[in-house]
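About this split. The held-out portion is used to measure sequence recovery: a designer receives only the structure tokens and must propose an amino acid at every position. Recovery is the fraction of positions where the proposal matches the reference. Here is one held-out target exactly as it appears in the evaluation file.
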């Protein structure tokens, strides 16, 4: 059984103490609780003390990262575009600055073992996406792949 891992990357428009940023963090806590209730979220990694690769720090805002693992790609996709997370996506422009060109907001990959998912691996996948675009090693929802490396359609 393979797991779908996703790294999300953003840069806040304001300081962490700014009311808009505080609103984002409050919303994020509710979103993670909603994710846990789905029964599809396998693991959430703590971003505290994560050292960002130099090439990822290209803007002025505070970086915000999430790394989660899901039972499958379809459940990740459905969660992303429904409920509180969908609303957060609609509100993201009040919290986040756009990322530099060719720098995606997220990258997804498959992992056969939960123990193989790490921040180091996530940054490697993110860099691969930037360097080569989406492929079965690192992809997005517009160009998804199944756990066998074949293109797949999501609904």
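Reference sequence for scoring:
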């Amino acid at each position: 059984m393979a797991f779908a891992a996703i790294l999300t990357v953003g840069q806040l428009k304001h300081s962490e103490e700014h009311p808009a940023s505080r609103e984002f963090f409050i919303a994020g806590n509710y979103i993670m609780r909603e994710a846990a209730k789905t029964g599809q979220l396998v693991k959430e990694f703590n971003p505290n003390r994560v050292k960002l690769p130099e090439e990822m720090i290209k803007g002025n805002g505070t970086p915000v990262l999430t790394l989660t693992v899901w039972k499958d790609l379809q459940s990740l996709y459905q969660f992303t575009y429904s409920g509180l997370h969908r609303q957060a996506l609609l509100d993201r422009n009040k919290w986040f600055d756009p990322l530099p060109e060719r720098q995606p907001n997220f990258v997804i990959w498959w992992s056969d073992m939960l123990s193989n998912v790490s921040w180091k691996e996530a940054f490697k996948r993110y860099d691969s996406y930037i360097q080569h675009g989406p492929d079965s090693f690192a992809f997005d929802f517009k160009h998804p792949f199944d756990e066998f490396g074949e293109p797949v359609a999501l609904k």
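Annotator remark: The longest strand covers residues 3-12.
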